[in-house]
Specification:
Length: 365
């Protein structure tokens, strides 16, 4: 087994930031270095090496039953052309690799099959990255948009340790393992989005926050991005299971059906979270309306309580000559007493009718 340290070092480090949609190959938000990693293996032997020239990959082809070449980072037209010549790739498939914003799909090109998937990662924002995959009789070739971490390390470890049947199978099984790893990478993202939805729901019920609508919109946008990524991927996996493709064995189709089931589960979760986002928006609007009603209720009660004293004060403030009790020394306290009795009577009446409710209860800030 030949696994130099630079192969693992090339995969280490934080994940790179995604390219903006429609960005040409080679453009990125941060400087990226393209790494070409070759992993050639069979039941008894494995070789792993980082190369700098696509021509070096030819030395691995045919030596082992499966050769996996992974191009990690932006690729130039010249680099794509070299890979196309070595692996006899169709020019239309190479154009899809270069575009970088393709929907998930599967295409058959005689000696090889081409598949597009999208990997996802969730930080402050949801990031997606196109993974282009070719597989033929004895090779698997993958292209990743951005240099850095990915969700395929579990597949690499299974190959290195010889876990399961992966070292004994053909390239179509490796292609299944890669697609399965991409699909499984959606579950932690959805779990994190679910936790954010629960936290947002608690915040809506506990307190008012002017940023709540923007937080709901951000979560909804992330969920829609996931939906746009996983929906065509489900159809692509279904095509691998259903269509007669000579490079996909019957045994691999059985495993692909499990991938399809996972994709269906993801879509169900995404649809549930979409509905929850709509419910949270309605809950937020209802909470805002209820708080406004409570404010209006308090102001209305205060206004109602002050109407009778204001009427009495206004009436006696007109100073007509024959106004009752104007010359009485206790007239002023008498008027104040009447005002107090009226206010107390109104408070008793409103409380008896149940209109005060929990007005004086303390609420969380």
């Amino acid at each position: 087994m030949n696994a130099p340290e630079d192969a693992s070092a090339a995969r280490s480090g934080p994940a790179a930031r995604s390219l903006s949609p429609g960005s040409p190959p080679g453009s990125s938000l941060i400087a990226q270095q393209t790494v070409i990693q070759v992993l050639s293996y069979g039941p008894k032997e494995i070789r792993e090496q980082v190369i700098t020239d696509p021509a070096e990959a030819q030395a691995f082809l045919g030596k082992q039953p499966v050769t996996w070449v992974n191009v990690d980072g932006p690729v130039s037209a010249e680099l794509l052309s070299k890979f196309g010549e070595i692996f006899e790739l169709h020019p239309l498939a190479l154009e899809d690799v270069a575009s970088g914003h393709q929907r998930a799909k599967v295409e058959e090109y005689g000696k090889h099959h081409f598949m597009v998937t999208r990997m996802v990662a969730l930080g402050k924002e949801l990031e997606t990255e196109q993974l282009s995959l070719f597989f033929g009789d004895n090779f698997v070739l993958t292209f990743q948009e951005c240099a850095g971490g990915d969700c395929l390390d579990s597949v690499r470890e299974r190959i290195r340790r010889g876990m399961g049947k992966i070292r004994e199978e053909k390239p179509d099984h490796l292609a299944y393992c890669l697609v399965d790893a991409v699909i499984d990478g959606y579950f932690p993202v959805l779990e994190e989005l679910g936790e954010r939805l629960e936290t947002l729901e608690d915040d809506i019920l506990a307190r008012h926050d002017s940023r709540t609508p923007s937080r709901i919109h951000e979560l909804k946008r992330n969920i829609l991005t996931l939906r746009r990524s996983i929906w065509p991927l489900r159809e692509a996996v279904n095509s691998l299971c259903r269509d007669a493709m000579p490079l996909v064995s019957k045994e691999t189709r059985i495993y692909l059906r499990d991938c399809y089931d996972h994709a269906v589960r993801l879509i169900d979760l995404i649809e549930m979270y979409r509905e929850l986002c709509a419910d949270l928006r309605d809950l937020h609007l209802t909470a805002v309306s209820n708080r406004m009603n409570e404010v209006m209720k308090v102001l209305t009660i205060i206004t109602t309580l002050f109407i009778p004293p204001t009427f009495i004060a206004g009436l006696y403030g007109m100073n007509f000559r024959h106004m009752p009790e104007l010359d009485w020394s206790w007239g002023y306290p008498f008027a104040l007493g009447i005002m107090g009795l009226l206010v107390a009577g109104l408070v008793y009446f409103l409380n008896w009718k149940g209109w005060l409710g929990d007005l004086f209860q303390r609420r969380p800030k």
